[in-house]
Structure formats: structure tokens, C-alpha cells
Amino acid sequence: MMQDEDLGGPARRNIFFQTISKISQAHQRYLDLWTPHVISRWVFALLLVIIFFLRVFLTQGWYIVTYALGIYHLNLFIAFLTPKIDPAMDLDDIEGPELPTRANEEFRPFIRRLPEFKFWYSVTKSTIIAMICTLFDFFNIPVFWPILVMYFITLFCITMKRQIKHMIKYRYLPFTHGKPKYQNHEDTSRLIPAN
Fold first, then answer.
1. Tens digits of residue pLDDT in 53-80
2. Which of 6, 63, 116, 153 could form a disulfide with 2 if both were Cys (CB 3.0 to 4.6 A apart)?
3. Angle, to 10 degrees, between the axis of helix 63-81 and the axis of helix 145-170?
4. pTM (predicted TM-score)
5. How many Cβ atoms sit within 10 Å of the Cβ of residue 65?
């Protein structure tokens, strides 16, 4: 039995898989370039959401798509606020990292269930998909939109109330502004040589 190498040419991959691989690598390269630019990423995501809402407002339609997008963004936000290891799931037989509950316990950093980059990526991707859905009349289901707004506000309030109670009960705050900054009491001007 003859192999591809015996025929004088290297084994070739399917051109379709090569193209998909190149597109995937280019996509990952652009994501890697965006990673350190947190503010720019969120401004871009906010602009996408504003453009989506302008499209919905100007066309007076696609309220079901908007409602689904809002529910999805709410679920992403709750996952962003929740710790990776939920302290409410206190199982005695499973040992794992948990949040400190007293001042004399060791500090353990807050690790999110949904990291910030994945949160941004999911928000951006879902908003683009919702914009694509507004291009098709099939998704423009007639509905009385004030009821959807009322449902969303009610769901948002109930969900956030539950999340805030969870934060208070287990004493964690998901928002930090980085490491503590310590003031240097020495005069640093003496360390810089004069020209």
C-alpha cells in the first residue's frame, strides 16, 4: 500500500480546513490585540448596543429580539458578579477555595464565574447577532412592547435583589480598583538627578 509520501508529495490537508484554520488564527490574533484595551473594548461594545437600540427605535420593530438580548446580557452580568466558587454551595466533602468571612482569615482574591474579557466578548458577539436578526422580517414578531419592558424591569429588579442579598450574606464585593496604593513618605525629588 502506497502512502502520500511515496507518491512524491506531502500529505495535503483539505483546502476548506486550511481556510478555516487561517480565519480562526486571524480572529484569535485580533482578539489578542484587543485584550489589554479594556476601556476601548467596552466603548466599542456600548456603541454596538446603542446602534442596535437606534435600529430598533427607528424601525419600530424586533422587540422580541431586543427582549432576548436584554435577558442574555442580564444573565451574563449576573455571571460576571458571581464568584467562581459559590460560597452558598457549602459541601463538606469537597475541599476548595472559598471566600474569607472573617477579618483574621487569609485573603483570597475574588475570582469571577465569567471573566471580564469573556463577558465583553459575549456581549459584543450577541449584540452583533441581534443586529443580524433585525435584517430579517421573520424575527419581527408583533408584540405589545410595554409588557416586555415591564417584564424585563421586574426580572432585573428581582435578580439584582437576590444577587445583592447573596453579596451581603457572604460578604464579598465583586468590584475592585486594583491593588492598594501605598504612599512613599520619602521625597522622591532627591532621587532624580538634576540637569
1. 999 999 999 999 999 999 999 999 999 9
2. 6
3. 0
4. 0.74
5. 21
